[in-house]
Amino acid sequence: MWIQLDEDVLERTHKILQRHGELAAAQRIRNYLGTAAANRKLHDQYRAAAQSRLSADDEVDQDAVVSLGDDPGAYVMCWLWVAEADLAGRTPVRAPGQLPISIADVH
User: Fold this and answer.
1) Termini Cα distance of the chain
2) Residue 24 resides in a domain
3) In a domain, 18, yes or no
């Protein structure tokens, strides 16, 4: 499971940690926010480059995770469509015609 926290949530978490005396943890969040702000333009460039390499069925979210590599480059999280026909000899777990369950359907 991947949970991505936006900058607003991280700012609020930073303030809560400070109020409760968790200064080391608060500083790590502050450092992360500073790095994220400094890299925002670069990350946007990597997202755009990734989108240009994908097909029309695939997409890169505007806030997709970008992981800079040790060498010049980065990994960019994206949505890559895989059709059931591409499962290479595997039988889908769900029955034919059964709609997949989305997290949005869980109340």
Assistant:
1) 18
2) yes
3) yes
The number of domains in the chain is 1
Spatial separation of the C-alpha atoms in residues 104 and 62, rounded to whole Å: 20
Does 100 map to a domain? Answer: no
| Backbone phi and psi for residue 67, each to the nearest 5 degrees, phi listed first | -115, 105
- CA-atom Rg of the chain in angstroms: 19
Residue 98 in domain = no
Instruction: Look at the pTM and tell me if it is higher than 0.85.
Output: no
CA distance 92 to 89: 10
Distance of alpha carbon 87 from alpha carbon 99, whole angstroms: 17
Task: Give per-residue pLDDT as tens, 6-25.
Answer: 889 999 999 999 999 999 99
Query: What range defines the domain where residue 68 resides?
Result: 7-87
| Geometric angle at alpha carbon 69, from 31 and 86, rounded to 5° | 120
Q: Is the dihedral of CA 20, 24, 30, 33 positive or negative?
A: negative
What tokens were used for 77?
């999280």
